[in-house]
Design brief:
- Helix content is 37%, strand content 21%.
- The protein has helices at 13-25, 30-40, 59-72, 91-97, 109-119, 159-171, 205-208, 219-224, 229-232, 256-269, 272-281; strands at residues 3-5, 51-57, 79-86, 103-108, 123-125, 130-131, 135-137, 151-156, 175-176, 190-191, 195-200, 214-217, 235-236, 246-251, 288-289.
- The strands form 4 sheets. Strands 1-3-2-4-14-5 form a 6-stranded mixed β-sheet, sandwiched between helices.
- Belongs to the nlpA lipoprotein family.
- Residues 1-22 form the signal peptide.
- It is a lipid-anchor.
Length: 291
C-alpha cells in the first residue's frame, strides 16, 4: 500500500520573532506568566515549544479536515500537524502501532474494535467526529428496481464495513440479516434476490463499478472516486443512531508532550470551527458532524 506525505505548515518567522520579543519584554515576571500560559495552551510542551504530531488519514474527508485545522487552528494551540495520507484501511493502524504515527484519523468505531481483536492493538479512541453514510452506486442502472436477475453486487471485503454494507442492502430488500444476531457477512446473510457478491478492497470499489451491476461504497472512497452522494447514490445509509462514527485514535500508552498534543487535537476536532467547516464543505450530507 502506498502513502503520501503532506508537508506540515510551519509557523511564520514573523510570528516566532514576535513571540520571542514578547517573552524578552516580560523580564523577571516571565516565570510566573509562563506558568499561566502553559495552562492555557494545553497543546504546548513544558517548554512552550510547538508539538509536532504525525497523523495518518484518508485523503478525504479526514485529511481535508486535518488540513483545515493545520491552516487555521493548530498554531494557536501549539500544534504542527504532519498529515500522512493513506489509501487503504490497514496501514494507518500498522504505522500507529509501530510508532511511525502519533495518531490516525480514518476509521469507525466498529472497524477499530475488529482490528484490535484481530491484531492485538492497544489503542484509545476519541469521541465521534463525523459520520460518512455508505451508499449504493451503479454505472449500469438508474433505479434499484432495475437490478437484473442474476446480477452482481460489489461489496467491501473487510468484515466490519461489510456488515454495514449488508445492513444497507437489507434495508433495500436484497438480503436478510441473520436472525440469531450473528455478525453479518456474505456467508451468513440470506439472499432475497438472485445475484452474486463480488468482494473488493475498499479502495477499488469505485473502479469495480464497471464490472458489477451495483456496489455499496464507503463515503471516503466514493468522494475520492468523484461520486456525489446527492447526484449519484441510489440509496444511502441512515445517519440516525449510527454507531459507525469516525474517530481520532492513538496508542493507549502515549505520554508526555505527544499525549498533550493528541489531547489538544482531539479537542480541536470537536470545535465549533471544525463543525462549521464540515457543514459548509459537504453540503450534500456525505459527511455529517457527530458532535
Amino acid at each position: 500500500m502506498r502513502s503520501t506525505r503532506s508537508l506540515a505548515v510551519i509557523a511564520s518567522l514573523g510570528a516566532a520573532a514576535a513571540l520571542a520579543l514578547a517573552g524578552c519584554s516580560q523580564g523577571s515576571d516571565s516565570s510566573d506568566s509562563g506558568d499561566a500560559a502553559s495552562g492555557d495552551a494545553a497543546g504546548s510542551g513544558a517548554s512552550g515549544s510547538v508539538i509536532t504530531l504525525n497523523v495518518g488519514a484518508s485523503p478525504t474527508p479526514h485529511a481535508k479536515i486535518l488540513q483545515y485545522i493545520q491552516d487555521n487552528l493548530a498554531a494557536d494551540a501549539g500544534l504542527d500537524l504532519n498529515i500522512v495520507e493513506y489509501s487503504d484501511y490497514v496501514q494507518p493502524n500498522v504505522a500507529l502501532n509501530d510508532g511511525s504515527l502519533d495518531a490516525n484519523y480514518f476509521q469507525t468505531v466498529p472497524y477499530l474494535e475488529q482490528q484490535e481483536e484481530e491484531s492485538g492493538y492497544d489503542f484509545t479512541a476519541g469521541e465521534g467526529v463525523h459520520l460518512e453514510p455508505l451508499a449504493i452506486y451503479s454505472d449500469k442502472i438508474a433505479d434499484l428496481a432495475d437490478f437484473p436477475e442474476g446480477g452482481t453486487i460489489g461489496i467491501i471485503s473487510d468484515t466490519a464495513n461489510q456488515s454495514r454494507a449488508l445492513a444497507l442492502l437489507a434495508d433495500n430488500g436484497f438480503v436478510e440479516l441473520p436472525a440469531d444476531g450473528t455478525d453479518a457477512n456474505v456467508n451468513t446473510v440470506t439472499k432475497l434476490k438472485d445475484f452474486d457478491f463480488q468482494e473488493v478492497e475498499g479502495a477499488q470499489l469505485v473502479r469495480s463499478l464497471q464490472d458489477v451491476d451495483l456496489a455499496v461504497i464507503n463515503g471516503n472512497y466514493a468522494q475520492e472516486g468523484g461520486l456525489s452522494q446527492a447526484d449519484d447514490a441510489l440509496a444511502v445509509e441512515s445517519a440516525e443512531n449510527n454507531p459507525a462514527v469516525n474517530v481520532l485514535v492513538w496508542k493507549t500508552d502515549v505520554s508526555g508532550d505527544k499525549k498533550a498534543g493528541v489531547e489538544k487535537l482531539e479537542e480541536l476536532l470537536h470545535s465549533d470551527e471544525v463543525k462549521q467547516f464540515i457543514e459548509d464543505t459537504w453540503t450534500d450530507g456525505s459527511v455529517i458532524p457527530a458532535f
